[in-house]
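Dock adenosine-5'-triphosphate; give full complex structure.
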Amino acid sequence: MKPIGIFGGTFDPIHYGHLRSAFEMLQALNFDEIRFIPCGDPPHRGTTFAEAKLRNLMVEVAIAGQDGFVCDDRELRRDGPSYSIDTLNGLREEFPDRSLGLIIGMDAFLGLTKWHRWDEILDVAHIIVAHRPGWRAPDIGELGDMITEHGTHRVADLHEATHGRIHIHAVTQLEIASTEIRDLVAAGRDPRFLMPDAVRNIIKETSVYMRDTNE
Ligand code: ATP
């Protein structure tokens, strides 16, 4: 069975930077599916702007019709903070023999050692790091050591083992960030072409980001 990719995020809102990276991963890594898992109550970054349910809906409409893209709302159904390690352990219980690949951007990877029980992640899943504009792979410190020990360039390694490897993968660099989209919408501008129209329509209909995001 091919690996399952796990793509967590606040997705506040989801945009083409997320979608294009996930799509390239799906194809290049030959994964069975990519699960988008919107964060319920993000422990590491204060509050979100859109409610979890709305962020989840935006993910659902964004990926509709794309084979291999799945929206998984497990973090919304769980009370308390959304820790990735709990999500990964839940998936591991559900899929004991499958290869699992946690997909994160390089910026998120650089903050990995601040995550709750971060050092248990490789016991459960692989870590797939997407290059993001402006970020370099660390070669020193705890993360540098981790890459030296667990890093692999071989996609086959992600299929042969169910967890435990780190794979850094270049994706087409789209310099889009949810923060900029929220600021743009709050300033009354149109986010067209930064995200699928179905997501843009929800943003328009709900006026979700039509306020000062620095409040
Ligand atoms: P914000 O601007 O609110 O911080 P964001 O655009 O970074 O949001 P998140 O939902 O926080 O989006 O990101 C989820 C995951 O997607 C993270 O692992 C992040 O590194 C990655 N990611 C975000 N934007 C891009 C992009 N343009 N290209 C590739 N990966 C991205």
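Observed: The chain has a mean pLDDT of 91.
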